[in-house]
What does this fold into?
Amino acid sequence: MCTLVIFRRKAGPWPLLIAANRDEMTGRPASPPARHWPDQPEIVGGLDQLAGGSWLALFDTGVCAAILNRRGTLGPMEGKRSRGELVLDACNHLDAATGARFMAELNGAAYRPFNLIVADPKEAFWVRHAGDGPIQLVAIPEGLSMIEAGELNDPASPRIRRFAPAFAADLPKPDAGEWSGWQLLLGTPARPGQDPGEGLCIRRDDGYGTVSSSLLALPADPLVPPVWLHAEGAPDRAAFQPVDLS
It folds into this structure.
């Protein structure tokens, strides 16, 4: 059950902030964010070595995209295309609106259900494929939003109820390199006695858990480079390191 936090604002030098934990079977091979695709050299993203796609990627135009599985749909399915390829297709546009509209026109029957986030410094969208009807396109409002395996800002989610206010109360300061509040939140496990899935940093006996984490800031000024910090491993143990965007 991956989790993504997105904060949007019109004013200020950093209009888009993202925090994301990737939850997956720990034995599934992956590579940290880099320019992994020779045929798409403008994309930096994490590489799923099995399917060749990504869970979070950034295009040089400033468009980013992230994919989350819907509840009960972990892993591939025979006859369905890989959802990781959607991340590369979604961010490979001049702006988020174009990318999101393109993804909303897909044939949903070709994919298992997903939540796809497509964003740039000006706009952000949730592409919702719940498997029970057409793919939907929803604009993400200003302020802080949070999504996991269900609905955007779902009030029924214990995880969102617990963590969304904490993320909103301790916004990072990318200019100062200050991300400590969000780093600590991403590494927070469930409380004693809770289901592990109610924490943000997950460890389960079946080998499923939080395998990496990212913090991303996109600037208003196109001449200022984005900031991407990545922890290759559970964020309560692995250090966040800058991603090479050159």
User: Anything to note?
Assistant: The two ends are 31 Å apart (CA to CA). The first helix runs from residue 84 to 91.
